[in-house]
Amino acid sequence: MTNSDFPAPTRRQLLTLIGKSAGVAAMYQAMTSMGHAAETQFSGPPQLSGAKRGASVIVLGAGLSGMLAAYE
Q1: CA distance linking residue 27 with residue 21, whole number of Å
Q2: Which class for 18: exposed (0-12), middle (13-18), buried (19 or more C-beta within 10 A)?
Q3: Could you tell me if 17 and 9 are in contact, meaning their C-beta atoms sit under 8 angstroms apart?
Q4: What is the DSSP letter of 65?
Q5: Residues with Cβ within 8 Å of residue 70, at least 6 apart in sequence
Q6: Helices in 1-72 by DSSP H: which ranges?
Q7: For 11-57, how does the pLDDT look when each residue is reduced to its tens digit (9 = 90+)?
Q8: pLDDT score for 3
Q9: Is 44 left (phi over 0), alpha (psi -120 to 50) or beta?
Q10: What DSSP assignment string belongs to 16-28?
Q11: What is the Cβ-side half-sphere exposure of residue 60, based on CA atoms within 13 angstroms?
Q12: Cβ–Cβ contacts within 10 Å for residue 69, how many?
């Protein structure tokens, strides 16, 4: 590989990338200060107790979500 395989970015492209990087850093800082970037408290899947006797559910829709809900 040579340098001609990957041409240098133009000034506009370089400034756009720098702006995006700065925007990401600013957004992450804002999320951290508001508490939205904290570590998750996930401790595993919930323990399901099963359906009550006589309970029934109607699943509307035959898309992927409906089929998954019916399977569960």
Answers
A1: 10
A2: exposed
A3: yes
A4: H
A5: 59
A6: 11-34, 64-71
A7: 999 899 999 999 999 999 998 888 888 888 888 888 877 777 877 87
A8: 63
A9: left
A10: HHHHHHHHHHHHH
A11: 0
A12: 13
The token duo for 15 is 């400034």
pTM beyond cutoff 0.70: no
Q: What's the pLDDT score for residue 72?
A: 65
Q: Which pair of tokens denotes residue 17?
A: 């990338």
- Domains of the chain, by residue range, sit at 1-38
C-alpha distances (whole Å) from 10 to each of 7, 17, 49, 71, 72 are 9, 11, 60, 53, 53
Tokens 């099963």 correspond to what residue?
50
d(CA 32, CA 25): 11
pLDDT at 5: 82
